[in-house]
Design goal:
Blueprint (H helix, E strand, L loop, with lengths): L1 H15 E8 L4 E4 L2 E4 H7 L1 E7 L6 H15 L4 E7 L7 H7 L5 E4 L4 H5 L7 E6 L2 E7 L6 H10 L3
């Protein structure tokens, strides 16, 4: 019985960080530092950490400080962080952002079309994108695993 539990636990852990099978990243328009671009175009210039979040998401309270760290520490090496809010009413994000400010770009997807295109399984879910391809998908967020995740992201940078 303990062997079965161990295998289930190992499988669940493996599902948290999944290397994607070089599938194309769904494209969408966004504004970054006042400039119109698309996520695919941006990924041809930089490594993109694309995160989907919602104001009601408990783990997102911890992922925002982590993404600020990624932005500050890995931004100079070529990483850009974009967080897509999926609240139906974008105003619901304001109290969350007042409490957990973002030093990175926030994009809104109230219709859920971008999240649907990425087949987001839960909140938060992040994708690492380069040259229009998804390199990595990470579902959920645990502070205890943040160093490991940061190292994985850094491995894709020069």
């Amino acid at each position: 019985m303990s062997q079965l539990m161990f295998r289930i636990l190992a499988l669940c852990t493996a599902l948290l960080i999944l290397p994607a099978r070089a599938e194309p990243a769904p494209d969408f328009a966004l504004t970054l530092e006042g400039n119109a671009t698309t996520v695919v175009q941006l990924s041809q210039e930089k490594l993109v950490y694309l995160d989907f979040w919602a104001s009601w998401c408990g783990p997102c309270r911890f992922s925002f400080p982590f993404m600020n760290e990624l932005h500050q520490e890995l931004g100079p090496r070529g990483l850009v962080v974009v967080a897509v809010n999926v609240d139906v009413d974008p105003h619901d994000a304001k109290p969350f952002l007042a409490k957990y400010p973002a030093d990175f770009t926030i994009h809104y997807d109230p219709e859920g079309t971008i999240a649907e295109a990425y087949q987001v399984p839960g909140m938060p879910t992040s994708y690492l994108i380069r040259d229009g391809e998804i390199l990595l998908r990470h579902v959920g967020f645990r502070k205890s695993e943040s160093d490991k995740l940061k190292a994985e992201v850094a491995d894709y940078l020069p």
